[in-house]
Amino acid sequence: MEHSIFYKENVPYLRPVETLQIGDTPLWPPLLNDDMLYIAARNHTLYALDKHTHKPLWSYKAQGDLLSAPTLLDDVLYIASSDRTVCALEARTGGVLWYYQAQGALLCAPTIAEGVAYFVAGQTLYALDAGLGDVLWSYDLQERAHVPLTVSNGIIYIAEKSRLYALDAIRRVIIWSYATQDTVRAAPVVVDEMVYLSSQDHTLYALNSETGQKLWSYTTRDAILASPAIAYGMVFVGSNDYTLYALEARFGTLRWQYATNGPLLAPPAFSDETLFVGSFDHSCYALDALTGEKLWSYGTRGPIDTSPSIAEGILYVSSTDTYLYEFASDRRWTFTTGNAIESSPATANGMVYFGSTDHNVYALKGEAGEVQWSIETGEEIFSSPLANSTREVIYIGSNDFTLYALAASTGAILWDFLTAGHIISSPGEWSGMVYVGSADHCVYALDVETGEEIWQYETTGNITSSPCIVDGVLYIGSLDQQVYALNACDGKLIWSYMTGGGVHSSPTVEQGLLYVGSRDYKLYALDTRTGTKRWEFETGNIVDSSPTVANDIVYVGSHDHHLYAFDAPSGKKRWQYRTGGAVASSPRITDGTVYAGSEDGNLYALDIHSGEKRWCYHTGGAIHASVATDEDLVYIGSSDHTLYALQRILLPTHIHLPG
């Protein structure tokens, strides 16, 4: 998937993630190139920022106001300022490559085409060598141009008052002109041998690019000061009558119109049959490009007079309130299976692996959610996969009594091992062995290469808990109410501890303590050497959630609807957060955030220190699985049959840089 795309179904989930303010002046729309973000403030300065942190990398201060966003081509930035200077800068360093002092007022940054920088200064059209800044030629216009020029297929389109001229750039002769009924205030757009031109006479014109002959026109209720935009066989244009129009590009017939509460002064941006447009009513709108249906909107504190831009998963909106707003969708993609997803996903090498109760194991590409492969087992899958990225093997159990070893790239079965019961337990791996529990009461140790049984240990109850292997000791719970510590090499019992209920929770070991939940409503902390109890905490219901430990804090969920945080050495409660349903999901921690799902259908992201909710995402069903994270994404399965890929960082922040 290209990061520049917002898929239409995700647009309603756009959320503000950052606002940027540089000084107290409005900003032109940004440009991105590699890891750098370029922003021109309208009062003199062009800034280059790190696109991730917004740390300033360099800046260039002109003697006059910058007249537009810069033009970027081949790692060179071109700017123009009100002091009549055109300048070319090296994009990585801000070093000046060349500058040109014009004799008349400039309109905006130059237009670059075929190695030539074109711009109008006063009543003169200039063509400069884009690499060196040397004047190649100039052309005297009859009057002063009012709008930026457009270059297409060797033809320069220049508007002077109410007339558009088509100038052959090689021969430097006018090949045609077309007069509207009032001043042209926006640059023409050339697509598929047609020139689209808006005018203050309320009309959008479509002209033949070779002859200038009018093919059609469409009249709105007020002046059109915005350039049109062409996509999906339609031309879109905003008017001072507060309305965005969508017309058939070939014939000019109206497809739809959408009314805002202010003039529209800039063309929209597009992504996946969605258009984004700013209005003078302070709002940015996302509309279905084919129907005009509103999908999303966001209000800023000032009029929006420029076009939004989309780059690398971010929607940028510049407002005259001096802020640059950045939006990201909290949902990147979804994938629907044939039944509930109780299996927690695993990530490795850019892939996401998980099972579904539709009997299948799936491998998806992490960025796009596209199926790499799937394999059907004989029964439902509750077990979570173990991904060995080095050996490129996926281990996963099924309710068909079988543990599978699958090739990570193809899903081919490398080996399988049949037990005498359902496998809900998720496998663990250590020292050339893979371990798993079964509803046949046994925990098994198998050779990772062949699947051959090395040893088994039988308890007196079903094993749905997953093994934890630390320093040659395997820890696992059983529904016979006990926690077991076994020698991982030979399966011999080291110790066991009897709780007051079945142990579905999987143990976690940290700094000599084992943490595990029980269906007797308690969380236990046991000494890993002896199995003696250090402390316990009683919640309001069973604890099937598997605890997670980070920075001496242990996190666990309970069927009493709460997620808890305890001091790991002492068991003292730090905080608790109430959800709307049982929390059987095991917490996961990444970058200061603890994630846990609830049977209320929400995935919660909480601050690890305070338990304060940072955000939550509602799915269509109960969440029993745990999340997996990979770079900037969080993956979670739901009983609504769907795996969700969500943006990991959604906290709105404000950055103010000195002007």
UniProtKB/TrEMBL annotation:
Top-level division of the source organism's lineage: Bacteria
Residues passing through the membrane, by range: none
Pfam families referenced in this protein's UniProt entry, alphabetically: PQQ_2
Domain Pyrrolo-quinoline quinone repeat, residue spans: 30-104, 123-221, 227-303, 308-379, 443-648
Protein name per its UniProtKB record: Pyrrolo-quinoline quinone
